[in-house]
Amino acid sequence: MICMAITGGIGSGKSYVSALLEKKGIPVYNADQESKKLTASDAEIRRQLIALLGEEVYADGVLNKPLLASYLFASDENAARVNAIIHPCVKKDFKRWLARHEEAEITAFECAILYEAGFEDTVDAVLAVYAPRDLRLERAMNRDKATRQQIEARMDAQMDDEEKVRRAHYVLYNDGSLPLEEQLTSIIKQLTKGK
To answer: What does the pLDDT look like over 52-101, one tens digit per residue?
Structure first.
């Protein structure tokens, strides 16, 4: 089995590329969605977050998202503490998911913070979805109904897209210059050619 990561900045089109892969029958693990589920339900994450933030982080047994977010975004140190709790559990969950899909020729791992979280060692190849910053900003503002300042702050908190492109094995350009399906088909052929 070949496992390919899909990464890129906010508004680059990672989720759209993941949907295209799923239409081709390729299973996709969405790290952002799964980390949210795990943070709400995983006993180990719950235990560690309570030790860090107190019982109120799971008020009435439900994750207190505003409390967690206010702590997380208060400082880089706080974010690092929370990530040190959540990221290892996501990595374990992803490995369990991979084991359930061992018959697949290709699997995919969608993760915006692939490099920042240290997840690149869990995959065979990295595909960066790239679009210029202004286009990504416009897409994210429309999608999230957020202000320019809110999206720019989120963009600035992530690794620069040019750095992601530099580190990736493959780049898919989602700026309207080339058809996405053709690029993706070509990348999949390259991936499976050496197998």
So the answer is: 999 999 988 899 988 998 898 788 899 899 999 999 999 999 999 999 99
Task: Using alpha carbons, select from 124, 125, 140, 109 the residue that is nearest to residue 9.
Answer: 140
149: left (phi over 0), alpha (psi -120 to 50) or beta: alpha
CATH of the domain at 72: 3.40.50.300
Q: Is 115 strand, coil or helix?
A: coil
Across 33-65, b (16+ Cβ under 10 Å) vs e yields ebbeebbeebeebbebbeeebeeebbeeeebbe
Give me the number of domains the chain comprises. Answer: 1
Query: What pTM does this model have?
Result: 0.89
Expressed as residue numbers, the domain containing 133 is: 2-193
Contact 140, 20 (CB under 8 A): no
C-alpha dihedral, 140 to 89 to 106 to 121, nearest 10°: 90
